[in-house]
Design goal:
Blueprint lengths: L1 H13 L3 H24 L11 E6 L4 E2 L10 E2 L1 H13 L3 E4 L2 H10 L4 E5 L3 H6 L11 E5 L5 H117 L7 H53 L4 H44 L8 H84 L5 H12 L15 H21 L8 H5 L4 H30 L7 H26 L1 H17 L11 H9 L1 H14 L3 H28 L5 H4 L6
Parallel strand pairs: 1-4, 1-5
Antiparallel strand pairs: 2-3, 5-6
Helix pairs in contact: 1-13, 2-11, 2-13, 6-7, 6-9, 6-10, 7-8, 8-9, 11-13, 11-14, 11-15, 11-17, 13-14, 13-18, 14-15, 14-17, 14-18, 15-16, 17-18
């Protein structure tokens, strides 16, 4: 076959001498050197961060936590805790404790790649929320991109982890105090609920007592109204008695004056017998009238005294009922009874005096009748008449004195009766207000009772809503609040190390570089085969096969070095080898087409495409992060699919993705071969440009 003979001829040419053989060997090793050195240098950079010097400045002065929820106050030094974790190796870098001035000078000079400053208020700021004076604590990170940009980025990540760790610790402590406060509130609320239950029982008894008081005040109001009415009637009767006693006193005075005149004129009694008889009859008639008035006054006085006694008995029964109902005390009832007795006694005394005066007037009336009867015999018994007149005068004087006394007693009785009436009216008014107040008090007591019941119900509901976790649950809850999110690292495919993560990119790039350098020695097309008018496709395969064979050797050596020397194991070794072989074959076909079509310009274009694919293949950062024009190139350039396919074979990814990548690389191979075949078909005709090219490398 022509293609095989052409390829064999080219391989013999390349290995015909020691120097040429060494050159071929160098071409085989170049991809391994490139990928091996890069992967070896980047095998585990994060694991060697401890070799990176970093300054640590601790100025924290500590703080006292606030005592709350049964937790005593204590002294904390969060800055020292952070420093201990960093120095013990949790901080990644090789941390060195120093002063602030030395740290800043060291970062500026490059002696330290970064510095972390923990200020004097660090602990005080962290505990400030416990005093409701919240201040955000801060860590100062000093970096210098002139030392190394990546160090600044990594330092920011480390400080972020330190911040998260401190936030978790402080948050857990705060949550613990918070939950302890809940527990104390729950306990206090339970005790408060017991007290409200006792209050509810007391308000129930209070409401029963208020109902009883309401009934008692209603009874008191009715009795007071009756007493006020009786006292009014008593006052009216006493006023009429006072008027009668006044008339009695006035009549007795006139009688006494008349008898005095009679006594003075008895000296001329013999000469005035006839006139005396007539006067005696007038006196007898007046005495009868006075006696009648006296009897009326005595009857009125006795009736008034009887009414006062009946009113006293009624009021005593009412007072006893009020004492029995608990409205009045026995002492107050006794005082009221004593006042009543004191007010009634003058009435009884006046009634007795008026009765006595009435009897005397009756005797006077009878005596005046006798005087009238004996007026005729007066002349014969003048001495006896004079003595009788003197006796009558003396009796009239006593009657006037008794009537005056009766009038004074009745006036006192009238004043007492008016006072009693006014007092009873005030008592009635007071009992009315007391009754209305007791109704309002009973309604208010009912509202209080309902309010206490509602308070009890709401406290029960509130008690159910307030958590009361046990110590273990509270601690677990506090830890969860302090660190609420746990990231579960569920890797569908794992690279295993940082170097292994970069292996697909560097191996693909090495495959392109290896294919590129091959055409520095290998001729893309055989001029002899073209001159012999051999089929174009055989001529193309004859030029592609030597480069493909050397490329396959490149991939084999690179795979062995990466797998064995660098210990980057492939999840699918055969798949990795096959993908590398296909990628190399496709890259060789494309670079052959560039060289055949464009010559030296095509060789330069291969270098340009390597640089373009270096940034578009998505080997380090996701390809979506590059600008939009480069994203379009990512979708059409073959190295992108070589990188993606190697990720599937090295880490154990998706077979469907791998199949797509293989199909794209196979398509790139076919496109490269077909383009070269077409160029070879055209180059069977020699032109001046081919004989004398403008640019030769």
């Amino acid at each position: 076959m022509i293609a095989a003979r052409v390829a064999a001829t080219e391989l013999r040419r390349l290995t015909s001498g020691t120097l040429r053989s060494a050159a071929v060997l160098a071409l085989i090793v170049i991809p391994s050197l490139y990928s091996g050195l890069y992967l070896f240098a980047n095998e585990d950079p994060y694991g060697r961060l401890g070799e990176v010097p970093a300054a640590l400045v601790v100025e924290d002065q500590g703080a006292r936590t606030a005592a709350s929820a049964g937790e005593p106050a204590r002294t904390v030094l969060y800055g020292d805790d952070v420093a201990k974790r960093l120095v013990d190796g949790d901080g990644g870098f090789g941390w060195v404790e120093t002063t602030k001035a030395d740290a800043e000078a060291g970062v500026r000079s490059g002696r330290f790649d970064s510095a972390l400053v923990i200020g004097p208020e660090f602990s005080r700021d962290l505990v400030s929320p416990g005093r409701f004076e919240p201040r955000q604590a801060s860590l100062r990170l000093i970096t210098n991109d002139a030392n190394n940009y990546m160090v600044a980025t990594i330092a920011g990540q480390i400080v972020g982890e330190v911040r998260d760790s401190v936030a978790q610790e402080v948050g857990t402590e705060a949550a613990t105090r918070f939950l302890s406060g809940f527990r104390l509130v729950h306990q206090d609320l339970r005790r408060g609920l017991k007290g409200v239950r006792r209050l509810s029982n007391g308000t129930g008894r209070l409401l029963d007592g208020l109902r009883t008081a309401e009934r008692g005040t209603a009874t008191l109001r009715a009795g007071a109204r009756e007493a006020a009415s009786g006292a009014g009637r008593l006052s009216s009767g006493v006023d009429r008695l006072a008027a009668g006693s006044s008339r009695l006193s006035s009549g007795a005075g006139r009688l006494s004056a008349g008898l005095g005149t009679l006594a003075g004129r008895t000296r001329s009694l013999p000469s005035q017998t006839n006139r005396l008889a007539s006067g005696a009859r007038e006196v007898a008639a007046g005495n009868r009238e006075v006696a009648s008035i006296g009897r009326d006054a005595a009857s009125a006085a006795r009736g008034l005294a009887n009414r006062v006694d009946r009113a006293g008995r009624v009021l005593r029964r009412q007072l006893q009922a009020l004492v029995a109902d608990g409205v009045l005390t026995p002492g107050v009832a006794a005082d009221l009874a004593a006042v009543l007795d004191l007010a009634g006694q003058p009435v009884r005394d006046a009634a007795a005096a008026v009765t006595g005066a009435s009897r005397k007037l009756d005797r006077l009336s009878r005596g005046s009748g006798q005087v009238a009867a004996g007026a005729t015999a007066l002349a014969r018994a003048t001495p006896a008449l004079v003595r009788g007149i003197g006796t009558a005068r003396s009796g009239a004087a006593r009657l006037a004195s008794g009537a005056a006394t009766a009038r004074s007693g009745v006036a006192t009785l009238a004043s007492g009766a008016r006072s009693l009436s006014a007092g009873n009216q005030r008592l009635a008014n007071g009992s009315e207000r007391l009754a209305r107040g007791s109704v309002r008090l009973r309604r208010g007591g009912a509202k209080v009772d309902r309010g206490v019941d509602e308070l009890t119900t709401q406290l029960r509901k509130g008690l159910k809503k307030i958590p009361d976790p046990d110590r273990r649950t509270a601690e677990a809850t506090a830890r969860t609040i302090g660190d609420p999110v746990r990231v579960a690292d569920d890797q569908l495919a794992s690279a295993g190390s940082y170097g292994a993560g970069l292996a697909p990119f560097f191996m693909s790039l090495a495959a392109w570089i290896g294919a590129y350098v091959l055409f520095l020695l290998v001729r893309p097309l055989s001029s002899r085969s073209l001159a012999a008018a051999a089929p174009a496709w055989q001529t193309v395969l004859g030029g592609w096969l030597p480069a493909a064979v050397i490329g396959l050797a490149q991939m084999a050596v690179m795979f062995v070095i990466v797998n064995v020397a660098l210990d980057i194991s492939a999840a699918d070794a055969l798949g990795t080898v096959g993908l590398l072989a296909l990628a190399s074959a496709a890259f060789v076909a494309l670079l052959q087409a560039f060289n055949v079509w464009l010559g030296a310009v095509g060789q330069f274009l291969g270098l340009v495409l390597m640089l373009v694919q270096l940034v578009t293949a998505g080997g380090t950062f996701p390809w979506q992060t590059v600008p939009e024009p480069l994203q379009a190139l990512h979708r059409i350039l073959p190295m992108s699919y070589a990188v993606e396919g190697l990720r599937q074979t090295l880490y154990g990814g998706d077979a469907a993705v791998l199949a797509r990548d293989l199909a794209v690389l196979l398509g790139a191979f076919v496109v490269g071969i077909l383009a070269t075949v077409y160029a070879a078909y055209r180059q069977r005709v020699w032109t001046p440009a081919r004989l004398h090219p403008e640019l030769v490398l």
